[in-house]
Every structure is written in structure tokens, then in C-alpha cells.
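Predict the 3D structure for this chain.
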Amino acid sequence: MLRALTSVLRLPRPWKPLRTRGCASDGAAGDREIQVRSLTGPEQGITEILMNRPRARNALGNVFVSELLEALAQLREDRQVRVLLFRSGVKGVFCAGADLKEREQMSEAEVEFFVQRLRGMMNEIASSAIMGLIETTRGLLPGAGGTQRLPRCLGVALAKELIFTGRRLSGAQAQVLGLVNHAVAQNEEGNAAYHRALALAQEILPQAPIAVRLGKVAIDRGMEVDIASGMAIEGICYAQNIPTRDRLEGMAAFREKRPPKFVGK
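Done. Predicted structure below.
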């Protein structure tokens, strides 16, 4: 993250493009639609994925999805990454949803394959269903998991209302419904949401990475099954955390009344 007092904090690594298969980006030569950088200094362990497709308002096209899946695959193997932030390089836009202009040129088989990849990507990043809601206004059924995730978040009746009407929600409305955790007033730079997300990442960063990772698995998998099975999943995750050095460090730090120093082992 670039801060005003760059003389105090070290600057982050520059945005790093990832190689990708498929067509050329719709930006200038050499541009990438997905870029990755790792923060340094006190924020080391936080990695950012920048969505950078300005002419299409970060719409989900073939190249965009390919580069994002590749980035996620690489980051999954990086044990130094503790918190992952998604941010937009397009001012005033996060993601416009599916690239319908590109989709219109696809055959039915190509659409089916693309939606399968998109659904897998959404599962990978545990995205909310908001991206898929506006598709009903264009004659499409939300195909990237919106019909399944939204009822689990809001209940069946409200999910049906939003999907059937294709209603667009403001950030404040989404927060009231429970679709997003936070809604913040915009700042002059237009990046207030990013700074709120970064502040949340900074809260997560000092926590034990294995415990956070296993907690995420327990919640995500537990929500897919009945509560008895979910309790069993939690037990399995808890057992995996017992022999870690971080758990022993946490107990020692509590006993010695000092901040813990977790190493992810």
C-alpha cells in the first residue's frame, strides 16, 4: 500500500503481472487484467489482487477469469500469504459482473464451459452473489452460484425478490440486508472501501495463520451440511490445530502476558 509518509514505511513491491493463457488483454500492449502485489513492512503477509480492466469496468471475461484463476492457484501455494485483498484499479467500479458483450459471441457450449469456470472461481474466492443479481435484468439466470449463495445469506423469500426483480442495491442497503459487513462514506480519493478492507486485513494479520485457515475451512464446509456433520468437521479441524507450534506459542503468550509471535507452523 502506498501511504503519504513513504519516508517512514517501506514501499511495497510493484504490481506484478501474471502470465496467462488465452487472448490478449483489451488494454494497452503489456497490460494485464489481473495484477498481484505483496505488501511489506508492518503489512507483510497481506497480498492484493488488483482487477484492472477499465474499458469493460472489470467485467468477467475470458482473459480476466483465466488470469484470476492462475493468480489464485499461485497464491494458494504461497505460505507467506496470510490475508488476500481484492481491489479495483478502475475508479468508481469494483466489478460490473459478467461480460455480456463477450458472452454474446460465444456458442452455447462455450457459454456452458465459461459459466462452469466462473462458478468455480466464485467458490474459490467465496464471493457473494451480488455480481449475479443484475443478470436477470438482461434475460439471464444468475449462473455463477447466485441462486444458491443468496438464499443461504438472506433466506429464500428475500433472495427470490432480489433475483426476480434484478434490483440493484447501494452499499448501505447491502449492509442492512447483511450482504456486506461494512459500508463506508466515500473519500476524496475514491478508495474508502479499500482502506476499510485493509484495516480489517491488518486485524487478521497478527492472528495464528493455521487457526485462521482451519477456521475458514470449518465454517465454509460446515455451512454445506447439517449441524451434526458440521460439528464433526469442526472437530477434525480443531484436531489438526492441536499439534501446531502456533497453538503452543499462543498458550505461552497468554501465560506470560505478552503478544504471541505466530510463524504458521
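The radius of gyration is 20 Å.
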